[in-house]
Amino acid sequence: MTVTTPAVAPAGADVATLRVVGKQVQAEGVLTLDLAAPSGGRLRDWTPGSHVDLVLPNGLTRQYSLCGDRFDPTTYRVGVLLEPESRGGSAYVHRELAVGDVVGIGGPRNNFPLVPADTYLFVAGGIGITPLLPMVRQAEMLGADWRLLYGGRTRRSMAFLDELSAHGERVLVRPQDETGLLDLAGFLGGPRPGVRVYSCGPAPLLAAMEAACAEWPPYTLRTERFVAADGGAPARTAPFEVELARTGTTVTVDPGSTVLEALDRVGVEVLSSCRRGVCGTCETTVLAGRPDHRDALLDDDERAAGDCMYVCVSRSLDDRLVLDL
Ligand code: FES
């Protein structure tokens, strides 16, 4: 997964310095970077579905899913698609970043965790294979029943086919120029308990997945998005107040500001990175009031629970929110 973000480093984030120790072409327009501490020391643990903030030497920050071996304690691997509309992130990685260069790394964080299940159905579109690859390895290691449906523009544009070919019929490779659109209904089958469905890819694929899983039990489908959600207009246009429970401070959020900006103005630092509701860095616990969720991370049930919000984009339905800050 890659997410387009403003040209900012993760605000206040704990950013480690890593060195590029490998750069390999994996498919047409897709390469992997291997990153290690300059000392060669151990990196933070991570779990399938995790991503990191990559702070590039040109000042841009991008989020990429970790797709390497989670049991290699000294190396992170990320997959990077050269975006046709790149504004300096993926183009820089592809054309300028070299082995030996130093980058900043924030995280890892996991907004897309693999939860226990009897059966996993994975559906990847293009570079959306990157968060699913460690999940496939984990499911295989656990002896779980799993299958992967992997679509792409062309076979040449699809990364990691060699590794996936070792899994035989569990993996269905479906290049669009050979087989057309993915047969989601045929792959998923009918709703049944004990199944978890994980999908990552472009927005049309994820919309099709939501439609295909509409009759499945709640919580079955988990998705990871490339881009910010289109939340439409905020639910309210009037200002609202945010009370910070730990200090008793009250901050007014006007219609032209985000909660994050309002907090920043009064010197309250909340870690942030993408500032578009896609990376999960600014997750904040809600103690009272109903958030107007505008992120691309929470599912319907998590939104209904209303006990956390992403303050870079989400607002308030009520006059007052109380946050655990
Ligand atoms: S900073 Fe990325 S979700 Fe808020």
TrEMBL record:
Residues 240-325 form the 2Fe-2S ferredoxin-type domain. PROSITE patterns: 2FE2S_FER_1, 2FE2S_FER_2, FAD_FR. Gene3D superfamilies: 3.10.20.30, Nucleotide-binding domain of ferredoxin-NADP reductase (FNR) module, Translation factors. The keyword Metal-binding applies. Signal peptide: none annotated. Its cofactor is FAD. InterPro entries: 2Fe-2S_ferredoxin-like_sf, 2Fe-2S_ferredoxin-type, 2Fe2S_fd_BS, Beta-grasp_dom_sf, FAD-bd_FR_type, FNR_nucleotide-bd, MRET, Riboflavin_synthase-like_b-brl. The keyword Mitochondrion does not apply. Keywords: 2Fe-2S, Flavoprotein, Iron, Iron-sulfur, Metal-binding, Oxidoreductase. Residues 13-115 form the FAD-binding FR-type domain. Pfam families: Fer2. GO terms for molecular function: 2 iron, 2 sulfur cluster binding; metal ion binding; oxidoreductase activity. This is Ferredoxin-NADP reductase. It comes from Geodermatophilus amargosae. The lineage of its organism: Bacteria, Bacillati, Actinomycetota, Actinomycetes, Geodermatophilales.
